Amino acid sequence: MTGAPRQSILRALMRRRVFREASDEEWRDWRWQLRHSVRSLEELARLVPLTEDERRGCLETKEIFRLGISPYYLSLIDPEHPFCPVRMQAIPRGAEALRSPGELRDPLGEDRHRPVRAIVHKYPDRVLLLALDHCPVYCRHCTRRRITSGEEGGISREELDEAVAYLREHREVRDVLVSGGDPLLLSTARLVELLEQIRAVPHVEIIRIGTRVPVCLPMRIDEELARALRRFAPLFVVTHFNHAKEVTPEAREACELLVDHGIPVENQAVLMRRVNSSARAIKDLMQKCLTMRVRPYYLHQMDLAEGLEHLRTPLQKGIEILGALRGWTSGLAVPHLAVDLPGGGGKVTLQPDYLLERRERETLLKSYRGETYSYPEPRETDCSVPYDEVYYR
Ligand code: SF4
Questions:
Q1: CB 283 within 8 A of CB 315
Q2: What are the tens digits of pLDDT across the range 215-230?
Q3: Does 286 share its domain with 225?
Q4: Residues 132 and 274 in one domain
Q5: 291-347, pLDDT tens digit by residue?
Q6: Rounded to the nearest whole angstrom, what is the distance from the C-alpha of residue 142 to the centroid of ligand 1?
Q7: Residue 333 resides in a domain
Q8: What is the pLDDT of residue 2?
Q9: At which of 48, 63, 97 does a domain end?
Q10: What is the pLDDT of residue 14?
Q11: 90 and 118 part of one domain
């Protein structure tokens, strides 16, 4: 047996094996899930037959980064396969404890753009608001691990008030990404309070919530939360599925509930060596996202955070994968391949080069099948828009 049926049987077996005592009601309760998260090598080893490398990883990263896996996400792990993509995202390997050349504690250069503790203001018109430092699962590829490791300490209510005061004072900010940590781990009441404060800032047009809850703790998304978020439109949820194995009936229900309440859901995946670094894995993931009405947005090249060399792919791999998607599946399923420049240069996007040659009256382009086509250039090349002078006066 292969594919989805095998996965659902494995999941049912895994759930029965590891959390036999849990009633269905408990299993669907996100607070029960958080209370029963697996946080130590001892607990984990009782539930999953660990490899030597994983044991070493748990021991050697103990002081570096939190271990935490919700029972739900743990139930997606294939206990028989060390290269299960869910397993590789949740259980550390020995290599995670190593520092490689070029790796940085703050790979995106965010800390020098933190005017107050809970705000990163790196781009002209948008900010990142760090709502808390906890997550439902501590992803082994997390690039904001200096925050989610707990090393900096939690974010207080006063610091969030200070962040909102910063937004009020900065009229250029029109887009706020609430992230962390995972903001959907706040109680609905506290989250609503924070969103009300942000929405009350007149120049903030768009709110985005960065969350891995639909992937790792989908039961958190219920009718009450979806209705609460709806009030803050335009509000986008940006989530983080990395492999089709994470697209379960529960995850689908969570995403569809959000979309049914008018909340657009976008996906940002990270390209990881031997987790999803094939055209087949990425295409399958993007197509499955679309079936949940989740729009593939970015495919991120792995950032240069400490301990992640073993998960990084060569830049060319991502370009190759994009080349295997563009034209071969719907354009909606093709994400932007983004590289967040090390040290804080911001994002740039890459794609296969379809431009062969520019001539005076035509440009030669390559099709997705590799054939050459000519695009004749117009005779007139002045593209200024006369009405701009009136409209933008
Ligand atoms: S959910 Fe996001 S912030 Fe939290 S550990 Fe995973 S990647 Fe990092």
A1: no
A2: 999 999 999 999 999 9
A3: yes
A4: yes
A5: 999 999 999 999 999 999 999 999 999 999 999 999 999 999 999 999 999 989 999
A6: 5
A7: yes
A8: 60
A9: 97
A10: 80
A11: no
Q: Which two tokens stand for residue 279?
A: 């055209």
Nearest-CA residue for ligand 1 atom 7 is 142
pLDDT classification of 57: cutoffs 50, 70, 90: very high
pLDDT digits (tens, 9 = 90+) for 20-46: 888 999 999 999 999 999 999 999 999
Separation of CA 54 and ligand 1 centre (Å): 20
Q: Output the pLDDT for position 1.
A: 61
| Axis crossing angle, helix 279-291 with helix 315-325, rounded to the nearest 10 | 50
CATH code: domain of residue 178: 3.20.20.70
What pLDDT is recorded for position 97? 97
276 and 392, same domain (yes or no): no
Question: Could you tell which of 70, 96, 135, 140 is best to mutate to test the pocket of ligand 1, judged by most ligand atoms within 8 Å of the CB?
Answer: 135
The answer as to whether 242 is a domain residue is yes
Answering whether pTM is above 0.90, one says: yes
134 Cα to the center of ligand 1, angstroms: 8
Burial 265-280 (b: 16+ CB within 10 A, else e): bbbbbbbbbebbbeee
Q: Do residues 192 and 68 share a domain?
A: no
Q: Cβ neighbours of residue 361 under 8 Å, at least 6 residues apart?
A: 376, 377
User: In the structure, which protein residues have their CB atom closer than 6 angstroms to any atom of ligand 1?
Assistant: 135, 138-139, 142, 144, 148, 181-182, 212
Could you tell me which of 182, 164, 176, 170 has the C-alpha nearest to residue 208?
176
What is the number of domains present in the chain?
A: 3
Does 174 share its domain with 302? Answer: yes
Boundaries of domain holding 280: 111-350
Q: Which atom of ligand 1 is nearest to the CA of 145?
A: 8
- CA angle, 143 as apex, 341 and 247 as ends, to 5°? 110
